[in-house]
Design a protein that fits this description.
There is one protein chain. By secondary structure, the chain is an alpha+beta fold. The protein is built from one helix and four strands, in the order H-E-E-E-E. The chain has a four-stranded antiparallel sheet, covered by helices on one side. Strand 3 and strand 4 (58-63) form a beta hairpin. The radius of gyration is 11 Å and the shape is globular.
Length: 66
């Protein structure tokens, strides 16, 4: 996430205030995941979290449109 200049603060904000969540597309060799989408500083951020983990295990995050 650092290579994409996404702060931990942005990820935490989206996980707490997301407006959409949906299953991530299945990928060979990857654990099932959920995508949380939320607006942070006027941009939509997608945060990928391994399904059914507590605490949540974030695998990646990406700005929507990048």
């Amino acid at each position: 996430m650092r290579t994409r200049r996404i702060s931990e603060e942005a990820v935490e904000w989206v996980l707490e205030h997301h407006h959409t969540s949906r299953p991530a597309p299945k990928r060979e060799g990857a654990l099932p995941a959920v995508i949380y989408v939320g607006e942070y500083r006027e941009r939509n951020l997608k945060v990928y979290v391994v399904r059914d983990t507590n605490p949540m295990l974030v695998t990646t995050a990406v700005w929507e449109g990048d």
